[in-house]
Fold these 3 entries.
Entry 1:
Amino acid sequence: HIFKIDGPLDLTYLLEVYELLKMDKQGLVYQNIKPITPQSFPPHQSLFDVIRKKDVLLFHPYHSYDSVINLIQEASIDPDVVAIKQTIYRASKDSQIMEHLLRAAESGKQVTVLFELRARFDEENNLQYGFQLERAGAHVIYGVPTLKTHSKVLLIVRRTKNLVERFVHFSTGNYNETIAKIYTDASYFTSKKSVGQDATKFFNYISSFGQKPIYNRLFASPFSIREELFKLIDQEIEHQKHFGNGHIILKINSISDIKTIDKLYNASQKGVKIELIVRGICCLIPGIEGLSDNIQVRSIVGRYLEHMRIYYFHNNGKKDMFLSSADLMTRNMEARIELALKITDISSKNKVQRLLNLQLQDNVKARENILGKYNHV
C-alpha cells in the first residue's frame, strides 16, 4: 500500500516493524552477533575493585553493554556508595539503568540525574523516568536553559571510614540499552582522581549554574572544546614546521563548523597530514590543490551506526587522544553542553590507535571523499 502524506513522517515506527519481522521473517533480519564479555571485568568480581586498579576502555556493541549496567547496579546496592550523578540524553523504554537509579534513590542515596528534554523521539521516556525519580527522592534537572545537554557521563561517590572514592564512566554514546546494541561507541571507566574531580566540578556546575569550572582532563562546550582543538591544531602546525610530522585524525559524525573547517584548511596548507573519518555531513572539501590537498576524508557505513567521536593529535610522538560527545558542528561547539576527555593510560591509547588504524585501512564499508564526491574504496 502507498499512502501520500502531507507533512513529515516519523520513521521510528520502522523499529516496531523490525521487531515483527524478527519474530516472523528471520531471513530478512541480521543474525544476532553475541557481544564479547570483557576480560577486564571477571564474573563475580566487584567492578569497583577492577576500576580502582586500572582504567578500562570498551567498544560497544562489540563489548557487552552489561558492564555499564552492572556498574550502576552495584552502586545502587553498595552501602558505601553515597551519591550517583548522571546525564541522560536518551532513556530507553524499559531501562534497567533507570530501575537501578530508582532503587538507589529509594534506599536513601543521593541521586542526581540531568535529563535532556529535547532529545528527539525520547522526550516522553525522559519525562516519565524523571517524574518517577523525583517521587523516589532523587534530584532531577530537566535540561539547562538555552543549552542542550549532550554530554554522557556518570559519577559514583563511595565513602568508607577513611576514604572518599570517585568512579567515573565517560561515554561517547547515550545511556540507552537499546541503542547500545546498534551504535558503535567508546566506554571509559576510571577512578583517577583528576577525572573524578573534573566530573564533580561538572555536576556541581550544571546543578547550580555557578561559575564555569577549570578542568584537569576535560574540555567542555560551549566554546571550550573548539578553543582547545584550535590549540592542538596549532601545536601540530608547529611540529610540522620543526619536525615534519604534524598529523591529525578526527573520527566524528559530522563536520560543518566553518571556523573549524577553516582551521583545518590552514593546517593542511602548512603541510599537516589530516585524516577525517566522517560518517555523515561533511562540509569540508578535501583534495583542493593549495587548500586541502593534505586532507583525506572517508565515511564508513555498515551494519552498526558509527557514533563514537575521537580526536587524535600526533604531538611529536606523544599522541594526544580524546573521547568526546561532540561533533564538529557549530551547534555542538556553541549551543550544547558537551565533554571531551583526554585518555592518558597506555593500554587505552593503544586500543584507540588500533581502532583508528583499522578504520583508515577499511576497504569494504568505506567510501572516500574526493573533491566533495564519495567513491567506494
Entry 2:
Amino acid sequence: MPQTKNRAVMIWLSTFAFIVAFLVVFGGFVRLTRSGLSIVEWNPVSGTFPPIGEEAWLDEFSKYQLTPEFQKVNKEMTLESYQRIFYVEWTHRLLARLAGFFYAIPVFFFLLKGYIPRKEFGMYFLMGILFIGQAG
C-alpha cells in the first residue's frame, strides 16, 4: 500500500480509480452494442480523430465490411448505422487515451516533486501497467 499522505496524490488516485471504473463499465456498453469491432485499424495518433468527409467514411465502412463481424452479424448495416457504432467505440478509445494522460502526467509530476517517494514508484508504475493491460 502507498504510504504517502499527500492530499493531492490521494485525490488523484481516487479520481483515477473512478475513471478506470467508468471506462470498464463503458467498455461493457461497447461490447453489448457490438461496437468494439467497428474500428478495424488501431492508429494511436491519426485515430484520435474520426473520419472527416463522405469519402473517408466510405473507406472506413468498406474496411469494416470485410470483417467477419459485418459478414456474419451486420450484413444489412447501412453507413449511418455504422457511424453510430463507430462513434461509440471511438468515444471509448478517446476516453481511454485521456485517462492515460490523466495517469501519466500526474504520476511523473508527483514523483518529481517528491510527493510520491521514489521507493514507492514501483507500485504506481504497476498501477499504470495494469491500466494498460485492462485495455486488451
Entry 3:
Amino acid sequence: MRIRLLLLSILVMVLTVPNEKAIAATTIELVQQERELLSKGDVVLREVTHGKKGAKTFEAVGLMKATVSDVYQVLVKFEDYPKFMPNVSKCEVLKRTDDTAILNYTLGLPLGKIKKYRLNMTFKNDKSRATLKWKLIEWKGLKKSETIQDTTGYWLLKEYPEKAEHVIALYHVYTDPGPIPRGLGWIVDILTKNSIPDVVIKTRNRVYETYRK
C-alpha cells in the first residue's frame, strides 16, 4: 500500500515548558484534503509548532480496518513493542494495573546510539473509543547523555463514521531530546517527524498481522 504524507503546520497559542503534559484530544478534526488522503490508505503527518527551541510536537493520523478493541489490544501489549515499533529495542514493564503501567524504553538509533527513558502510561478502552496517554518520569542512574529531556503524548482511537469497519487513529507526541552534540542533529528528526508516521503504519501492520485483516 502506497503511503503519502501531508505535512500541516498548526500554530498552538501556548508556550511549551519542560514536563508539559499532553492534553488528549477527544475528537479528531479533519480537513477535506486529509479525508481524501486517509480514504486512500495514506497517513497524515501534522507538525504542531511550539515556542521552545529544540522541542518538537508532531501527530499522525491514519485509518485501520479493525475494531477499536483490536488496535487497543495491540497497543497495550507493551512488551511486544520491539517487534514492530520504530527504534524500540526493548520495552520493560516495571509495574502494571488494569489501566496504568510504568515502562522502561530503550531506543536503538543509527551509529550505535542508545537512548533510554521511563514512562508512566495510562490507558482506557470504551469499545467505540480508546486512549493511551504517557508522560516521562525519572529514571534514576541515567546520565543526561543517555536519556531525553522530556516526552508526553497520547493515542486516540475512534470508530470512523465515514468508512464502515474502520478505526481512525491519532498519534500525538511531544519530544524534547535535550542537548544534542554537534553533528548529531539527525537524532532530533529520528525521534520526531521521521518516526511519527512509521508508528501508525507499523501499528496498522501489526494489527493486520495479529487479526489477519
